[in-house]
TrEMBL record, chains A, B:
It comes from Rhizobium herbae. Gene3D superfamilies: 3.40.50.2300, lambda repressor-like DNA-binding domains. This is LacI family transcriptional regulator. It holds the Pfam family LacI. Keywords: DNA-binding, Transcription, Transcription regulation. It comes from the Bacteria. Residues 3-57 form the HTH lacI-type domain. The keyword ATP-binding does not apply. The keyword DNA-binding applies.
Length: 358, 358
DNA sequence: GAAAATTTGATGTACGTAAATCAGAAAATT
DNA sequence: AATTTTCTGATTTACGTACATCAAATTTTC
């Protein structure tokens, strides 16, 4: 049997109350006694039963998720996943609130972070914008020992506990590798459509993409980056202009959102060479375009995984327990037409039998 | 606050004992009363607190994992992941035992399944072999209401509760799609190296691969399948012979194990056209070969995810609660040189602070 | 309508931990 | 040495559920 607090008490030759004081960092224990208890814990290999502790405390984990607003499909999907997690709250003892702030607006994000801090939550997850003010706001949270997880876009230089998102440099490199190989012998320049260089994920993708294109496929020149602000209308305009100006464009890498606009521009195009298109994030629009052959490959990050991972990590940090590193690594999905997952899930043989438990 | 058993009792106008009898399917409750209670449960939206229930029962989940023996790197990695899960047993209330049986041997597998059944575990996970005897053995387990999850290779036609593995038809299709595009304009036939057509995952990969090659890339003929029994030595011999017999081979798809042999054969080769190689499962051998450019792409299933998913699903089935479908879908990882994950993990800012909890 | 059988209620203990109270022991201070 | 302060022990209640026991009420059976 797994040792309990009683076993520690016996092993250390102290009372249960003292063990409890040590375990929960309560005052009123002499240094020597504290040490005796800690050694006993170490010796008999005690691990606190988090389930029992949470039961005793009737603990809930109040978490705040801060997401960009706007009609970015990916971000709305992310929000839907957070709402799904809210639906699981009773079982998971979480109390999640969602705060949305205008995209690419550091001031608004700082305000939201400070507001979240005022509610003393058990943890905060945030889609970060790279800016010194935001770093400072995150570090203020950490200063109050509130765990912080960055979501989708990281915040280098901050004291955030964890990043729940993909390796965006690798994503960019992979996109370039696929682009180069898919283009095969064909020649022609490659265009890049981004959202904004303000967010780290977009910058990193571009860095990775440029590096591999220059190293391995120098025959394809990179055109100046189009910044579409993740806005479909703007993206459509920019891509349309680019295609008109350079009909010999052989490839387009869309590393941000606003793919609806990209797809519209591609559909409007009638002349010119075939274009190899690689885009990010699987949405209803990109999925349809992939099936139609307008897009050749989609790199995707699974928003559901990111949200669930963020919650697991925030819980673990709040409880001071270790996380399974490999489980929390968010992978880059590469979708071709051939490995698109079905829209709806569930391939189990039967429904659970409610109430049965043994 | 979330409703408890007391709230059901009050809402249904019965005693706690009666609620308990209904909830735990104990005898001694009249039909009308049972219905009253069940309606109250429905009405107030009661969900049993599994953590508290497990505490009260001091429940452990005895699970049996049945894996093929032999020096197949992927399977040994899978076993390592199960052992890692055993290391987490105290926290997860599991008691996992591992049984290994000779690969591709239905009789041995049936014996192992029946033996497992004799111990009345809370669940069984098994790397299945497609055979009527195995189906029958699995259905015997289900007959005793023991949840069964197939791992890596599925068992169609059986009553298994769930399959923790990838969509192997999609994997084969994806491999073909990559192969066709990577080959670009080049011509030449494509060879396929499999383990055994006895296991469903290999058959499905081949089906998917053949389908897309025939549909989309009819210029590349498919050579007869090489069955290497997942044995490196045999694989090396078969591939060596094939390359010698057809120096014009343009691509090789290795859909099973024994990639050490494939790589050795590729290294030995000095003449002939460049070969595009797509293999399955990221191991130290395939990883090195990908980095060296001997392999062009690796399709991978994450053994750790599969094991953790299997455990989550077995627990859920044993408790009669629902699973998060999307979370349990195992995805096909596509690795190019550019998105290889690091060998070791951990990109968190700091270690957990042991003992702290609030 | 009485006896037997069944159903229901009341109550207590347990699981492992948290948290509070109060009394007593040991230190530190005067 | 007496007093104050600090530490430690003993004990209790609670969290939500499981499970057992025994008494009381209800239904069924003859």
């Amino acid at each position: 049997m797994r040792p309990t607090v009683h076993d520690i008490a016996a092993a250390a030759g102290v009372s249960l109350a003292t063990v409890d004081r040590v375990l929960n960092r309560r005052p009123g224990v002499r240094g020597v006694t504290r040490e005796k208890v800690e050694q006993a814990i170490e010796r008999i290999g005690y691990i606190r039963d988090v389930a029992a502790a949470n039961l005793a405390k009737s603990r809930v984990y109040p978490f705040v998720f801060i997401l960009p607003s706007g009609d970015n499909s990916f971000m709305r999907g992310l929000e839907a996943q957070v709402r799904a997690a809210i639906g699981r709250s009773p079982a998971e003892r979480t109390a999640i609130s969602i705060v949305t702030v205008p995209a690419f607006n550091p001031e608004a994000l700082v305000a939201a972070l400070d507001e979240a801090r005022a509610t003393s939550p058990s943890g905060v997850a945030v889609v970060a914008i790279d800016s010194p003010d935001v770093i400072a706001a995150v570090d203020r949270l950490r200063g109050e020992r509130i765990p912080v997880v960055t979501l989708v876009s990281d915040l280098a230089g901050s004291k955030r506990d964890h990043f729940a998102g993909v390796d965006n440099i690798a994503a960019g490199r992979t996109a370039a590798s696929l682009m180069g190989r898919f283009l095969g012998g064909r020649s022609g320049p490659v265009a890049v459509l981004a959202g904004s260089m303000l967010v780290r994920d977009h910058r990193e993708r571009l860095d990775g993409f440029s590096a591999v294109m220059n190293e391995s496929f120098p025959g394809h020149a990179l055109l100046p980056v189009l910044e579409g602000q993740d806005d479909p209308a703007l993206a459509e305009q920019l891509v349309g202009e680019a295609l008109a100006a350079s009909p010999e464009i052989a490839g387009i890498y869309s590393l941000g959102a606003g793919n609806r606009g990209l797809i519209a521009a591609l559909k409007r195009r009638r002349n010119g060479v075939p274009v190899c298109v690689i885009a990010h994030e699987l949405t209803q629009h990109t999925r349809a375009a992939l099936n139609d052959g307008l897009i050749d490959a989609i790199l995707n990050q699974d928003a559901g995984h990111e949200v669930r991972s963020a919650i697991r990590v925030l819980k673990a940090k709040a409880d001071g327990v270790a996380v399974i590193g490999a489980q929390e690594r968010i992978r880059i999905d590469i979708f071709l037409k051939d490995n698109l997952p079905f829209e709806r899930d569930g391939h189990d043989n039967q429904e659970p039998e409610p109430g049965r438990q043994d």
